[in-house]
Specification:
Blueprint (H helix, E strand, L loop, with lengths): L5 E6 L2 E6 L10 H16 L5 E6 L22 H18 L4 E5 L3 E2 L1 H7 L3 E5 L3 E3 L13 H9 L1 H10 L2 E3 H7 L4 E3 L4 H12 L4 H14 L4 H16 L2 H11 L10
Parallel strand pairs: 2-3, 3-4, 4-6, 5-7, 6-9
Antiparallel strand pairs: 1-2, 7-8
Helix pairs in contact: 1-2, 4-5, 8-9
């Protein structure tokens, strides 16, 4: 597929998706959101791809929703239809994707751009990058999943503060709060992300997909429900070739060669 607003780069066993509207700091419009969804659908169907990196072109990750794309009549912006048609399918596809998504946070992630970063499984940030839930600055609430992701990362009190002040949370503070996994100097960002890519492209991808699925579900479940789910999913994991390879490698005192199956 030919993309106009993202760069789809396929490497050995992983894909990098790069938001590519640099003149507007990679602001999100319907075309970009649709292309991202199609890209993730392609990734989902391609067994050889075992990991995804999501980042932004040039200086920004994403400045959020492109306000010029919603029309000039501010009294009749179709918020509900925009969210349901473009944002919700994308966020759900990302969360249900059985492959890890690493956000390479190279610059500002604001508004819906912040939501997009938080929808990833892991965030490695440049010290100079920041996340900001700036919806409140124009009298809006968080959307694209931030109301779900933010309190789970920070707890309710800190999430309320960040959501209602629109504060910028830069790399090192974001790491200390648990909002990102790691913050590194900008010149080291590519290297640190590549280390995680190298891990996930050789890891037991099938088991990681099951872990991601279970973590998505477990937050709202009772302990006895989680224990039951663990037994079912462990049976699935134990039926994989990766499990057999892992045990044989352990017994033979060698490094396992996981195939992600």
């Amino acid at each position: 597929m030919q993309y106009n607003t993202i760069i789809y780069s396929e490497y050995k066993q992983y894909v990098e998706l790069k938001l590519n509207r640099p003149t507007v700091y990679n602001a999100l419009n319907p075309e970009m959101l649709s292309e991202l969804l199609e890209a993730f659908k392609t990734i989902e169907k391609t067994d050889e791809i075992r990991c995804v990196v999501l980042t932004g072109y040039d200086k920004a990750f994403s400045s959020g929703q492109d306000l010029k794309s919603v029309g000039g009549d501010l009294s009749n912006v179709p918020f509900e239809s925009i969210i349901k048609e473009y944002y919700n399918p994308l966020i759900l596809k990302m969360r249900f994707l059985s492959k890890p998504i690493i956000c390479k946070l190279n610059g500002v992630a604001a508004g819906a751009g912040c939501s997009l970063a938080l929808a990833c499984d892991m965030i490695i940030a440049s010290d100079e990058a920041y996340l900001a839930e700036i919806f409140v600055n124009i009298g809006l609430i968080m959307d694209a999943g931030s109301t779900f992701f933010l309190p789970r990362a920070l707890g309710s009190y800190k999430a309320f503060e960040i959501a209602t002040t629109g504060a910028k949370v830069f790399g090192k503070e974001a790491e200390s709060l648990g909002l990102v996994n790691k913050s590194v100097p900008a010149l080291e960002l590519d290297v640190q992300v590549q280390k995680m890519v190298d891990y996930y492209t050789t890891a037991p991808t099938y088991a990681i997909g099951l872990i991601k699925e279970m973590l998505n579900q477990s937050t709202g479940m009772k302990l006895e429900e989680v224990l039951e789910l663990e037994s079912v999913y462990q049976q699935k994991a134990g039926s994989s070739s990766d499990f057999r390879e892992g045990v044989m490698a352990f017994l033979e005192k060698r490094k396992p060669e996981f195939q992600g199956k």
